[in-house]
């Protein structure tokens, strides 16, 4: 007999289109199997040979959480490069390392949860380090480059599948799971959606992750924008993955739904395809989905839609075609090319803020290097574990020679004396071995425990001298002489055990609280005071016995940091102060910053250095801007935490081996007084970011100096169908080969409504030798000049003159020209035909936008304790109206006037037992004709959805 080969099911046939293969596989899955696929950790289907699958691998600037990997600069540093080709190569390297790491550890995923495209609207946002820029055009350009690198260039198969974070309008950690971002339609379309849209339209995005917050009163995980906007931008299947724990938040924190079955069904119908909840335990989500089905809240067809989107990603990743997957054998990991790329990125991210000529440093310069970050290579929450590291001090030793570099960290050296006269002491430990947090990798690093293999702190007659750093806001760390930070493990004992502060809940930070003539020492992570017991020093527990009472300490200062700084700086040719932040303290995920100011400890060091030596250079290494006076400094630079090659890169820039060409990706404000409220998302109304800010910034968007000079010439423009062609030349007029970041902006000269002061249209980073000239050409789509017309509910190009501005920053404009663009003229609002949607105002004060229903639509309400004011410009009443109606819920009053005059109609909404989504339509008489501005005043906690006119 002749043996027949086994039948190959269609989903295994690489010659069939993915859509047909997915249809086939879906038809073979049982309902229970499909439901199982909806959790982050999808189980295998062994009977079909389908493997387990996990959504979500963090890789914001290198593969994170899974052990050693190449660590590139923080995302905000990549934004500062303004170099899309560089960022594309970084994405390529990161995706290759993800493939290589997965080959030896199948916990490593290929569904990459990066990049973060939330705009850096507010510099106090704790996650500033994760975004690229305050500008949507620059953000989308950098994000597109990174996703293209992550995806790979094969037409069918993807090296990794990137997911954009965090949809939508997410810029506050304070109350992030319950706060609502009030986003007016113009801001929604012109600002927040734009960064996502251009990246998605570029075609290298596999999906998005909704954010924890609500937008206009509705949680992002049930947002209609997923369907109305996101999925309308592309024909490609997009996988929407929930943020961790967010599905449960819909009931447990936000109380938006009464039951988890309702919440899960609403999320799935809105477009969430994968639920990240309860860690690796999928049982609760499976039970909720099954319950929603049983209650008729979901259909199997809706489940099929979500599973299809997940399978689409898995097929693109080559999971079902290992023999045809071009990336299956990728093993590029920690290669010389990746190391060189990390250094190149760190060099390109450095921004020269000011320079009086002290930089670059001569080769024989005698340097004093001081500061709390001078000998640090800090990592953040989304970093991998360092294979290589270079601190600024190490980089300068290497570049200038250790004999020419003096160092003082500037910590306060202290002893902590107990109430009985003894001192805190770090016992010696022969068994202690170096251990780096996260070196072993963890799917959830929040679960990594502190070390308990070292002896707890004790007390003795002499004690240990600790390095105390005050990170501001009363938050301090204590470090033992061997370099280990004092930390608290799960057993409650204090040990000098941590290589760095870190973890989801940082266990290495403390507060000194005044108590009588001494201080109590509170451990911030547990919220408990430190006690001294017979078996060691620990945090207090729940009992009230005498030995558990807080210890009162006297802080004995052995040496102040500024004294050490003064000692090493006075004889140096140049002093370098390296200041900045620790990415796990006072500004990180879950915690916004309180102020733009530099921590007082570091201000003390900077003042001491400047007083001792006027040739003082400040290098800020930070995840966000500071308001720091640099006017009396010889030079100042900024770089984000630059990854594994940060120190080498900084030294090479200081020495002039590389001319700095990083540019600020966000405005640096002079003081906190320049900032809007953290929860104020109206960039137009409150004049936020370089687009609208009318004050004088400390350093403007796009700013960055060079060691050479460039001239700009020959700006020309011409418009063709749908495109504006712009060109100009730049010339290196100095004597150093260097990069220049040429920036093209526009502004509407005589707009009918508020438009940006400047708006980035395009940019390019180019390298020019001395005397070299290059013509730069840009093709700008005319839609870049459009705005969202709330009167029409769509984009519109306003005809008229627009100024084109070319230069080296948003304020350093070298060339200008004016172009006259055709467009669609404005017209009065046809209120007789359409009325007024409540949220489609032109101006407002004292109002918030809220959800009209749980599934769709907006309404407006007066902010708590305020009277709401709304203005709708140019409303055409035609030959006349005699009645106004309002669609409202709740209780209060709506008052209407025209052109700011007397109240013409007042409609009272009586108190009732109805809910916020139970609307009623009420009317009043009014006499109006012609074109007027409509002014509405809202009193009380009512919701206004619509205003109509008739008569």
Describe the structure.
The radius of gyration is 30 Å and the shape is globular. The termini are far apart. Helix 1 crosses helix 11. Strands 13, 16, 17, 20, 21, 22, 23 and 24 form an eight-stranded antiparallel β-sheet that branches. The protein has a six-stranded mixed β-sheet with strand order 10-27-26-25-11-12, sandwiched between helices. It is α+β, with helices and mostly antiparallel strands and 951 residues long. The protein is built from 18 helices and 47 strands.
Describe the secondary-structure layout.
Layout: H1 18-28, H2 31-36, E1 41-42, E2 53-54, H3 75-81, H4 84-104, E3 111-112, H5 136-151, E4 161-167, E5 180-181, H6 185-201, E6 207-210, E7 214-215, E8 218-219, H7 225-228, E9 239-240, H8 246-252, H9 260-270, H10 283-294, H11 300-316, H12 336-348, E10 351-355, E11 367-370, H13 392-400, E12 405-408, E13 412-417, E14 423-425, E15 458-460, E16 466-470, E17 476-479, E18 485-488, E19 494-498, E20 510-515, E21 518-523, E22 528-533, E23 536-539, E24 552-559, H14 561-569, E25 574-580, H15 600-612, E26 616-621, E27 635-639, H16 646-655, H17 689-692, E28 710-720, E29 723-732, E30 738-748, E31 759-768, E32 773-781, E33 787-789, E34 794-796, E35 800-807, E36 813-821, H18 831-834, E37 836-837, E38 843-845, E39 847-851, E40 858-862, E41 868-876, E42 881-889, E43 892-898, E44 903-909, E45 920-928, E46 931-939, E47 943-950
């Amino acid at each position: 007999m002749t043996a027949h080969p086994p039948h190959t099911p269609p989903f295994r046939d690489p010659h069939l289109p993915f859509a047909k293969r997915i249809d086939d596989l879906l038809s073979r899955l049982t309902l229970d199997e499909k439901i199982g696929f909806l959790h982050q950790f999808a189980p295998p289907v062994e009977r079909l040979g389908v493997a387990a699958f996990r959504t979500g691998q963090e890789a914001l600037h290198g593969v994170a959480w899974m052990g050693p990997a190449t660590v590139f600069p923080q995302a905000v540093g990549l934004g500062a490069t303004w170099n899309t080709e560089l960022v594309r190569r970084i994405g390529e390297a990161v995706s290759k390392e993800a493939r290589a790491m997965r080959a030896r550890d199948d916990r490593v995923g290929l569904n990459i949860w990066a990049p973060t495209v939330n705009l850096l609207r507010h510099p106090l946002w704790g996650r500033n380090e994760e975004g690229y820029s305050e500008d949507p055009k620059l953000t989308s350009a950098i994000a597109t480059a990174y996703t293209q690198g992550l995806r790979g260039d094969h037409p069918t198969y993807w090296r990794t599948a990137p997911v954009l974070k965090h949809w939508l309008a997410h810029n506050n950690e304070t109350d992030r799971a319950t706060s609502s971002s009030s986003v007016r339609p113009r801001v929604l379309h012109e600002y927040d959606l734009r960064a996502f849209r251009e990246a998605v339209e570029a075609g290298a995005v596999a999906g998005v992750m909704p954010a924890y917050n609500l937008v206009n009163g509705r949680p992002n995980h049930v947002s209609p924008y997923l369907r109305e906007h996101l999925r309308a931008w592309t024909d490609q299947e997009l996988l929407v993955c929930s943020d961790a724990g967010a599905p449960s938040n819909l009931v447990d924190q936000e109380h938006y739904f009464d039951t988890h079955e309702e919440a899960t069904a609403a999320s799935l119908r809105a477009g969430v395809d994968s639920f990240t909840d309860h860690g690796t335990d999928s049982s609760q989500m499976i039970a909720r989905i099954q319950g929603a089905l049983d209650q008729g809240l979901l259909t199997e067809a809706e489940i099929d839609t979500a599973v299809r989107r997940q399978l689409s990603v898995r097929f693109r990743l080559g999971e079902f075609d290992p023999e045809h997957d071009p990336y299956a054998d990728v093993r590029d990991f920690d290669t010389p090319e990746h190391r060189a790329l990390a250094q190149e990125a760190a060099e390109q991210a450095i921004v020269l803020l000011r320079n009086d000529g002290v930089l670059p440093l001569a080769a024989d310069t005698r340097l004093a290097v001081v500061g709390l970050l001078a000998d640090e290579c800090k990592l953040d929450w989304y970093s991998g574990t360092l294979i290589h590291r270079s601190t600024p001090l190490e980089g300068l030793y290497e570049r200038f020679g250790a004999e020419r570099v003096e160092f003082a960290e500037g910590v306060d050296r202290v002893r902590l004396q107990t109430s009985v006269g003894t001192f805190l002491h770090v016992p010696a430990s022969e068994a202690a071995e170096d251990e780096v947090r996260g070196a072993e990798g963890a799917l959830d690093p929040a679960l990594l425990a502190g070390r308990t293999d070292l002896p707890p702190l004790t007390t003795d007659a002499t004690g240990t001298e600790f390095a105390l750093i005050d990170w501001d806001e009363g938050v301090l760390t204590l470090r033992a002489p061997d370099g280990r930070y004092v930390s608290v493990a799960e057993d409650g004992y204090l040990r000098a055990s941590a290589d760095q502060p870190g973890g989801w809940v940082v266990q290495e930070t403390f507060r000194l609280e005044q108590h009588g003539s001494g201080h109590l020492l509170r451990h911030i992570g547990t919220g408990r005071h430190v006690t001294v017991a017979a078996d060691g020093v620990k945090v207090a527990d729940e009992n009230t016995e005498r030995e558990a009472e807080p210890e009162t300490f006297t802080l004995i200062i052995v040496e102040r940091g500024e004294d050490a700084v003064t000692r090493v700086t006075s004889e140096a040719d140049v002093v370098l102060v390296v200041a900045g932040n620790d990415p796990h303290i006072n500004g990180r995920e879950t915690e916004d910053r309180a102020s733009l100011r530099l921590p007082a400890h570091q201000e003390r060091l900077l003042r001491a250095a400047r007083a001792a030596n006027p040739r003082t250079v400040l290098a800020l290494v930070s995840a966000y801007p500071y308001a720091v006076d640099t006017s009396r400094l010889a030079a100042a630079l900024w770089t984000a935490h630059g990854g594994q090659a940060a120190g080498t890169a900084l030294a090479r820039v200081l020495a002039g081996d590389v001319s700095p060409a990083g540019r600020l990706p966000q405005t640096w404000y002079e003081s906190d007084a320049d900032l809007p409220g953290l929860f104020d998302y109206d960039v137009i109304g409150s004049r936020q970011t370089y687009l609208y800010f009318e004050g004088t910034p400390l350093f403007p968007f796009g700013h960055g100096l060079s060691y050479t000079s460039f001239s700009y010439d020959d700006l020309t423009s011409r418009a063709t169908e749908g495109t504006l062609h712009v060109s100009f030349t730049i010339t290196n007029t100095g004597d150093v080969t260097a990069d220049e970041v040429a920036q093209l902006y526009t502004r509407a000269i005589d707009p009918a409504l508020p438009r940006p002061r400047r708006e980035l249209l395009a940019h390019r980073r180019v390298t020019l030798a001395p005397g070299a000239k290059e013509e730069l050409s840009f093709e700008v789509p005319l839609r870049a000049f459009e705005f969202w017309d709330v009167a029409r509910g769509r984009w519109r190009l306003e005809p008229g003159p627009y100024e084109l501005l070319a230069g080296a920053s948003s304020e350093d404009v070298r060339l200008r020209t004016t172009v006259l663009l055709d467009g669609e003229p404005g017209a009065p609002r046809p209120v007789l035909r359409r009325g007024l949607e409540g949220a489609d105002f032109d101006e407002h004060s004292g109002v918030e936008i809220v959800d009209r229903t749980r599934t769709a639509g907006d309404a407006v309400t007066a902010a708590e304790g305020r009277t709401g004011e709304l203005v709708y410009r140019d409303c055409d009443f035609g030959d006349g109206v005699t009645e106004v109606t309002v669609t409202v819920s709740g209780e209060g009053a709506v008052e209407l006037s025209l052109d700011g005059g007397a109240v013409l109609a007042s409609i009272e909404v009586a108190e009732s037992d109805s809910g916020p989504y139970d609307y009623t339509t009420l009317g009043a008489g009014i006499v109006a004709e012609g074109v007027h501005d409509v002014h509405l005043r809202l009193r009380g906690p009512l919701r206004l959805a619509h205003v109509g006119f008739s008569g």
